[in-house]
């Protein structure tokens, strides 16, 4: 029997992308014929980076990866998956707390749209890496060199400098 072509989307906020996300992308891309990293424009969260900036950073990082692309989307994840004719939603799992949330989300997405979610477990070294912690550490000038790629560090430094300048504070 011929194997069916599989297209997956990896939706998330990626505000900013971390080594944990990149690890999920690296391992996920081996499972599918095509992987689209999908940057959500969630209006509820108060993002640090605009979707276009997040897409720009991710584009740089996936440059050498064949069959991986990135774009932003502005609708329900399942709607987006349908538009892209995707078969699978890829998500990452770190902890039991992630599991509880992701389980609910995956069940709902399957119930409303019949789409499957496939999970990739975090690598131990990134088990505690999250975008919100990265933002917090970076805003206080801490060292995040092991947790995000250099391009993300540069963007974070620029962003916090710009925010300080906007508030009229000295760097
Ligand atoms: P969302 O706001 O949709 O949760 P995130 O950017 O925070 O978006 O995360 C996107 C996906 O990546 C989620 O499935 C999340 O559990 C997963 N993820 C985030 N950080 C890691 C990590 N360090 N290891 C594995 N998966 C991760």
Q: What brief labels describe this structure?
A:
171 residues; binds adenosine-5'-diphosphate; Rossmann fold; five-stranded parallel β-sheet; globular
Tell me what you see in this structure.
- With 171 residues, this protein is an alpha/beta fold.
- It has a single domain (7-128), classed as HUPs (Rossmann fold), CATH 3.40.50.
- The chain is 43% helix and 18% strand.
- It contains 6 helices and 5 strands.
- The model has no long low-confidence stretch (mean pLDDT 94).
- Bound molecules: adenosine-5'-diphosphate.
- Residues 12-14, 18, 20-21, 24, 91-92, 94, 98, 122, 126, 129-131 line the site of adenosine-5'-diphosphate.
**Average of per-residue pLDDT values:** 94
Low-confidence segments, given as residue ranges, are none
Number of domains: 1
Q: Give the bound compounds.
A: adenosine-5'-diphosphate
CATH classification class: Alpha Beta
| Main β-sheet description | 5 strands, parallel
Query: What percentage of the residues does DSSP assign to strands (E)?
Result: 15-25%
- Specify the overall morphology: globular
**C-alpha end-to-end distance:** 63 Å
Q: What is the β-strand count?
A: 5
SSE order in H/E notation? EHEHEHEHEHH
Fourth-tier CATH superfamily name: HUPs
The amount of helix comes to 40-55%
Total DSSP helices: 6
Might you state the CATH topology name? Rossmann fold
Structural class, from secondary structure content?
A: alpha/beta
**Main sheet: strand order:** 3-2-1-4-5
Round the Cα radius of gyration to an integer and report it. 17 Å
Named CATH architecture: 3-Layer(aba) Sandwich
